[in-house]
Amino acid sequence: MPTTWNDILDLGDRATPEIATARVEEEAEPKRRGAFKRLRESLSKSRKALSEEITSSLFDRIDEETWERLEEALILADAGATTTAQVVEKLEHEVDSGLVPPDGQAIKARLIEILAEIASTNRSPIDLSNDPAVLLMTGVNGTGKTTSIGKIAWHLKNEFGLSVLLGAADTYRAAAAEQLTTWADRAGAGIIRSNEGADPGSVAYDAVSAAKARGVDVLIIDTAGRLHTQGNLMDELSKVRRVIEKQMPGAPHETLISIDATTGQNGLRQAKAFAEATDVDGVVLTKLDGTAKGGITLAIATELQIPVKLIGVGEGLEDLRPFDPMEFASALLAED
Amino acid sequence: MFDQLSERLQSTLSDVRGRGKVSEADIDKAMREIRLALLEADVNFKVVKTFTATVKERCLGADVLGSLNPGQQVVKIVNEELTELMGGTGRDLVFANKGTTVIMMAGLQGSGKTTATAKLAKLLTKEGKRVALAACDVYRPAAIQQLETVGKRAGAVVYQQGTDADPVEIAGWALKKAEEENRDVLIVDTAGRLHIDNELMDELVRIRKKVKPMNVLLVVDAMTGQDAVGVAESFAESAEFDGVIISKLDGDARGGAALSVKAVTGKPIIFASTGEKLEDFERFHPDRMSGRILGMGDVLSLIERAEEQVSEDEAEELQKKMANETFTLEDFLKQMRQVRKMGPIGNLIGMMPGMGAMKGLKDVDVDDGELDRVEAIILSMTPYERAYPEIIKGSRRRRIAEGSGTKIQQVNNMVKQFGQMRTLMKSMANGKMPDPQQLARMQGGKAPRAPRPKIRRR
Question: B452: which of A117, B198, B238, B325 lies 20 to 30 Å off by Cα?
């Protein structure tokens, strides 16, 4: 039973049934529709073919090299040395002690279970139960914050009939507000923006005020990409968060960090630093339509108890899915 | 940059260093540590395997086992192999003798192409070239506006035809325009694309065939993990890139992707993007980088930047003064002014030898406002006082405080810190590593934050 949108969203008291997915208008679609459609199809194909793929590459024979091959596969998926060691040791122990029969299929199934368990750490839905529900988007430069916001907004509006407002609090990047405005138009959401160079806190303030005044269901606030090593920018992020909270106690109700699936071990440091600046509730794992597997999210789950909640699988409005631990665990070791 | 990797290697090899002899078991132990460190630094798994095998083989050679200073030999070998892995002495852009030279940018979404395009434009403009940019990303919302804004800031003209035109046509039209307008360089900014997106990779090939760039640069994010190799190999096949720009190097990503890309594709890293501002862009020097990995510091970069301000004679004179502790406040004032011209203190601290190894140091903030205060204080001193700061007491202090608009306590502190710094500089000039506690005290008591917890190893 893969995770559905209803599973991943906590809509509180709102009595909004899941509407059948609206087809996106031709004009609103980005130009590369054909390519993305193919990618989506190939992703589901690879999901089906997974069982054969893992068995053939890793568990043909059960010998000394089995564990080395598994280690290699996990490292190549960016799981990192620590997580890899933990997983391999555990599985090896279970096979050696007879808990798992020395049979390719059984070991594979147990492996996916172990990985899915890790990926399920602290699993919780996105909290949209408040009125308005305020969602804050953070992350390092180039990881896909703005695009993800566009997709989230579209899903909330078109599949759940919610009213959405966007806050363009990235006042640093050239044409950032213009970029978010395009997404707002595509998603059918409103937007609060200011001029480049304005104080991000003040835009956040205005956005929360507007969200309350207009009675929208959800407010999503975009922030500028920032390297977690830049102390002053992390301080600024903390400040934006405080401004939001002051305007509406309890807000932001959900803070997400976007992590690029191609990110290596640095992803853990990123998540840690952002969590220190602003309490991160979940990860949006982006660009999974590439060949990277996003294995670093296993370490993020284990060490920081921050779960992945959404995955980005393309640049189109529809290319966003709820995170499913089993699906993720299977894909982690699939050959490309 | 590669700080963590250099820390780890240093501590690994400091075990081996200084001991009488090494056995094969010792070498295996060191290799395991190096392997872990490189993997944690995101160097590709296969590259790591080859690297450690090569290093071990060389280490086992007669010149290490049984030699007088085996630890240092291991460090030397690792450094050499690392340098070779990253590509010898580097390579630069190629320019046409006449007409417009085309540079094409390529890479994954979010890697930093547009920012790098503007930075490169600024660098080339500084070197006297007339630069134009072609806006060929018609997919990403507001990409063209972004390029127009940063391009203008960089001093380049931006050619665009909106988002309805075909990128290949835009590129062709831009080149014609650049030639008509006698631009020396045309940088073609393209849309981010997945290496497995056949349609878009094909578009890249068509752009390349249309404008025949003399330089195709792949922009790679420094935080990229194991995927870097697959991406680079695909782009090498389709885009046939000539070199790499590593972006977001000012983060704390170990940057192993840089090593991997070079090792697997053979293409050199030409530029490094090291900050948010357009000026934070420099030529990549592989031989210096590997020294940095081993904690030897990016000394040459620092010297190069200093050379822009200080003549060689002055530098030698300064070195002598530092070593003999005859460095005065006058010298300090001069140095400080030159240092300020060089760039943010933070960058410079990172460049000094051994600084990477000091865990807390990066967290010590140097306040440029404090430098203003220090400068004011020194300017209120007489030349005699600057030469012999020990005599600054009582009425002199009062006078200096009044003259610089500071408090007497601040004058006290400054003179005291200067004394400490002078001692520090003496030991550094004589080859010893500075003590982080001392440095922290010099910063006015702000101790470095606790070091980040180390990842557990097997």
Answer: A117
